[in-house]
Amino acid sequence: MLVVGNRRIPGAFIQQLKNGRWHVMQRVAGKNRYPIDVVKIPMAVPLTTAFKQNIERIRRERLPKELGYALQHQLRMGNKAMKHTELRAAVLDALEKHDTGATLLMVAPLFLMRRIFRQLPFISPALNTRGEELDSDTWQAELHIEVFLPAQVPDSELDSWMESRIYPVMSDIPALSDLITSMVASGYDYRRDDDAGLWSSADLTYVITYEM
Questions:
Q1: Strands 103-104, 132-133: parallel, antiparallel or unpaired by DSSP?
Q2: N or C: which end of the chain has fewer CB within 10 A?
Q3: Is the whole model's pTM more than 0.85, yes or no?
Q4: What are the start and end residues of each CATH 3.30.70.1700 domain in the chain?
């Protein structure tokens, strides 16, 4: 039961959405929906402002049991999303400053229209957005740096790209070092476009740990 002024809303809860704002939600027929009477108030802006101003206090204090676990989880998820944005930005900024001779994409080109492959080569830095909670403060995620070249190039050319244009950048990113506790290379895989024969790629993977 959520009480807002003189309104009582059964089954309502507070949730942070992808836009970063906190909203009052109500589960209707198994789905999360905005309660109409709450939206009319409205509450998204004051809720979001309140959480931003009091987030550290909320973490420290013991929350009411019926709200505490769900709210703490939402706070962690929101903080993780912000952290991942900072991590991706640090890698992207470092690659942009280095003359790699490739177009940088935050989305792998195989998810885009095929005509975009005329612009090869690509470099796609991506971070596993799920992440893994090692303990209450330490998280782990996978960082992928994938190079896309035309389909006909041999694996040796992909290796050359990685060795000459990617490794030098990834070995020295001060802005990233400030955000993480460790980064260890964990994999290196080749992929090819078997359907249309448009691209080949090398995917360099790091496991990173960071504090929340």
A1: unpaired
A2: N
A3: no
A4: 78-211
Q: Kindly write down the DSSP assignment for every residue of 7-19, as one continuous string.
A: EEETTEEEEE-TT
Asked whether the beta carbons of 105 and 92 are under 8 A apart, the reply is no
For 155-193, the pLDDT digits (tens) are 999 999 899 888 888 888 888 888 888 988 889 999 888
Q: What is the DSSP string of 145-188?
A: EEEEEETTS-HHHHHHHIIIIIHHHHT--HHHHTT-SEEEEEEE
Close Cβ partners of 135 (under 8 Å, ≥ 6 residues apart): none
Residue 6 CB-density burial (10 A; 0-12 exposed, 13-18 middle, 19+ buried)? exposed
Q: Residue 168's CB: how many other CB atoms inside 10 A?
A: 11
